[in-house]
User: Which sequence fits this backbone?
């Protein structure tokens, strides 16, 4: 009899535990999305395909990546699970899978965003399914889930306990009425952060509380006028141009003046921050690389001086020596930044953001 009671107790306990941990999934599309320039037909991509049709082919492809997009939600679940469907399996020699294809979870604690845990993509499958965090207390908390930096997400479902609540935040920890729109290179897109939340636009988002739009296009931020036209169509309180690493000195000479002039003419009252290229560490040794970087810096400085002489105002300039320190330890491959480099980059840009937004 005692043995039977013990078996029954074990079964009941196991069932209760199973019921408690039964997961109910909610489409991330029904929650609060930030980091989007405009609505798109494919909800987890950055620019709608209709709007990229006149842009370079490489930009069209990269615009489908979900860099900078994040989901805000509140839940009292003690466990958070995620299912996400990737367009393809990626390999980058200078980026971890978590960064290019994984998820990155933060929680708003005492008014500040604190790292929680990541969703690690499994090899060999586009369908990812993973418990991100468990064994939490059951108080209502606000979370922010960053999407992959260098992959396209076709679907994202967030799982919580069956009996828990999940909803859009009543008081979002990001002020979506203040928008910083950033255009730039692979560094802006997030190479080579260890995880999506360590790309420097994401760091700036958490430090400022503003909605930061990541329009980084790896290797292809070359200041084509079509991109200036798109930027001018995006509602913004501040534009940041960190695109000098990609165009050649000749392209900067040919395109940068018209690019910035057009943006200013279309948005006369919106401040612009122009950032020089980071100096490539390998350029200290590879003379050809060093000469190219020096040429880029020379040409963009000429453009800045020309625009200032013409009276353009609300226009800020950040030089390369201010960006990632001088100890030569901030890159992974001589070009792309580590988390240390991204933290330094964010710290360098932050005072100008505050100054521009205050003015």
Assistant:
């Amino acid at each position: 009899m005692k043995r039977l009671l013990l078996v029954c107790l074990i079964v009941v306990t196991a069932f209760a535990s199973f019921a408690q941990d039964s997961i109910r999934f909610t489409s991330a599309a029904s929650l609060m999305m930030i980091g989007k320039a405009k609505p798109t037909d494919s909800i987890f991509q950055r620019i709608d395909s209709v709007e990229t049709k006149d842009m370079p082919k490489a930009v069209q492809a990269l615009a489908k990546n979900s860099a900078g997009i994040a989901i805000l939600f509140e839940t009292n679940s003690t466990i958070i699970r995620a299912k996400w469907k990737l367009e393809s399996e990626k390999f980058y020699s200078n980026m971890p899978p978590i960064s290019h294809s994984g998820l990155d979870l933060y929680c708003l604690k005492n008014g500040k965003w604190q790292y929680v845990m990541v969703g690690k993509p499994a090899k060999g499958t586009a369908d990812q399914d993973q418990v991100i965090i468990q064994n939490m207390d059951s108080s209502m908390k606000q979370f922010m889930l960053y999407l992959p930096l260098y992959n396209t997400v076709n679907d994202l479902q967030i799982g919580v306990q069956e009996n828990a609540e999940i909803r859009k935040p009543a008081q979002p920890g990001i002020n979506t009425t203040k928008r910083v729109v950033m255009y730039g290179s692979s560094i802006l897109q997030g190479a080579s952060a260890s995880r999506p939340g360590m790309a420097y636009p994401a760091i700036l988002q958490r430090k400022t509380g503003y909605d930061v739009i990541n329009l980084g296009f790896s290797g292809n931020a070359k200041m084509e006028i079509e991109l200036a036209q798109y930027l001018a169509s995006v509602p913004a309180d501040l534009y940041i141009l960190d695109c000098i690493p990609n165009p050649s000195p000749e392209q900067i000479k040919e395109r940068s003046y018209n690019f910035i002039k057009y943006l200013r003419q279309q948005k006369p009252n919106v401040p612009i921050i122009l950032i020089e290229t980071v100096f490539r560490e390998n350029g200290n040794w590879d003379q050809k690389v060093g000469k190219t970087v020096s040429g880029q810096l020379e040409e963009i400085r000429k453009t800045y001086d020309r625009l200032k002489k013409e009276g353009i105002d609300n226009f800020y300039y950040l030089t390369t020596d201010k960006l990632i320190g001088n100890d030569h330890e901030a890159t992974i491959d001589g070009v792309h930044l580590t988390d240390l480099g991204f933290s330094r980059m964010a710290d360098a840009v932050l005072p100008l953001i505050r100054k521009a937004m205050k003015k």
The mean pLDDT is 94.
